[in-house]
Task: structure prediction
Amino acid sequence: MRVAVRCRLPGTFRQGNVAGLPALVGPHKHSRRRSLRLPRVVIRLRIPKVGFRARDWLQRRPVSLVTPWEGNVRMAVLKPWFRVGSGGRVFMEPTAAALRRFAPGALAGPVPALRELARMVVDGEAALAPLEFGVLAFTGPSQEPLTAADRELFWRAFQAPIFEQCRGPHGELLAYECEAHEGLHLVRESAIARMRGWVLVDSSCPCGTSTPRALRAQARFAAG
Ligand SMILES: [Zn+2]
Result:
């Protein structure tokens, strides 16, 4: 700990050991009487910077997990972004054994994590019962896209429908796939600006929801 000593005399400032105090005590040059003025001692504790930024923390607060299913779903979430309801669990470090014990009815996670788990199930390295509900596959501006090969692999491994959800860098939902599996519904139209590789379409979705929808740019191009 370092101690800073400041006395009332103008221009006098010393940083060091308090043993030097008596030398600072003396008459003030403007005072009429020769009197002693005790120095004001300021002790400063040096506190290390902890690097905590409230804004970062607020941006990383848990977000709601939006699912296409009603009621309590035994959901295993492979990403620590989310606030899950009763019945669900966030796996900070998912292992095949822990997932098997949990026996999820649905899975949610980024594509690479799902891909790794699916490969283990298909190769017989991990055992997981077929999912009752389905898979939420997270993609996003800074994440890997969900390919047709991924969908096939996930279907073989989990034997349940796959729903893509495009999410921002802090897990916030930008767009989601519905039961019709015809592109993604945008949470708000402006979200398309953050979805690289997607284009806005103006046709209505077979599911009947009229919110703005996006298709993969290649898919849109192939469809003419
Ligand atoms: Zn739809």
Q: What stands out?
A: The chain has five helices and 13 strands. The two ends are 72 Å apart (CA to CA). The longest strand covers residues 134-139.
